[in-house]
């Protein structure tokens, strides 16, 4: 917390002019001002001394105002020194933090049971899901290969019937569509059979 001003040469000059009057300056005020007035550069003056100076100037009826004197001054804010922490308090806070972290961990893992995982065989369920995905990928790949092969066979085989490329492509698309629809029919019937089994 600020308790003094940092004053410069301008403050010293104004105060020296004010104190050169014929009125007697109180001894305690003069004693407090002498080190500041004799020094050079920046020095600090306490608020208490500034109040005494202001009271003295008002008493002698001087028309000078305090803010004019302190025009080139700044508040002196001492550097805050952080007090050392109490070791008992630090140890207690660490215990509380550890306890809260443990409670948070227990809250997050309260529905996890390691025995349940090994009993039901989560890895076995994962294996079933992988096999199911593998079957689906192979089925789609088989469907695509069958349709492409049917198109290629129809396109190549139609060169003996049609001479124009457009007719060959149309016949190949029709043959691939028929094979694709047949393949989808078989696939749906197989899936119905798989789903119907318990």
Automatic annotation (TrEMBL):
Cellular compartments annotated: Endoplasmic reticulum membrane
Any one of the GO CC terms: endoplasmic reticulum membrane
Record field: transmembrane: 136-157, 169-188
Keyword Glycoprotein included in the entry's annotation: no
Topological relation to the membrane, as annotated: Multi-pass membrane protein
GO terms, biological process: vacuolar proton-transporting V-type ATPase complex assembly
Alphabetical UniProt keywords: Endoplasmic reticulum, Membrane, Transmembrane, Transmembrane helix
Protein's recorded name: Transmembrane protein 199
Lineage of source species: Eukaryota, Metazoa, Chordata, Craniata, Vertebrata
């Amino acid at each position: 917390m600020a308790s003094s001003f940092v004053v410069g040469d301008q403050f010293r000059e104004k105060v020296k002019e004010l104190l050169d009057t014929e009125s007697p300056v109180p001894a305690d005020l003069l004693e407090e001002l002498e080190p500041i007035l004799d020094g050079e550069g920046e020095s600090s003056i306490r608020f208490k001394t500034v109040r005494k100076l202001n009271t003295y100037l008002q008493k002698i009826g001087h028309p000078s105002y305090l803010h004019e004197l302190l025009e080139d001054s700044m508040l002196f804010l001492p550097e805050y020194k952080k007090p050392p922490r109490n070791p008992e308090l630090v140890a207690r806070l660490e215990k509380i933090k550890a306890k809260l972290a443990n409670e948070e961990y227990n809250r997050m893992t309260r529905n996890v049971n390691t025995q349940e995982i090994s009993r039901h065989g989560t890895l076995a369920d994962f294996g079933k899901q992988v096999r199911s995905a593998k079957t689906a990928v192979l089925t789609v790949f088989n469907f695509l290969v069958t349709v492409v092969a049917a198109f290629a066979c129809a396109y190549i085989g139609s060169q003996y019937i049609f001479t124009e490329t457009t007719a060959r492509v149309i016949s190949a698309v029709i043959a691939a569509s028929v094979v694709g629809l047949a393949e989808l029919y078989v696939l749906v019937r197989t899936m119905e059979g798989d789903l119907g089994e318990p």
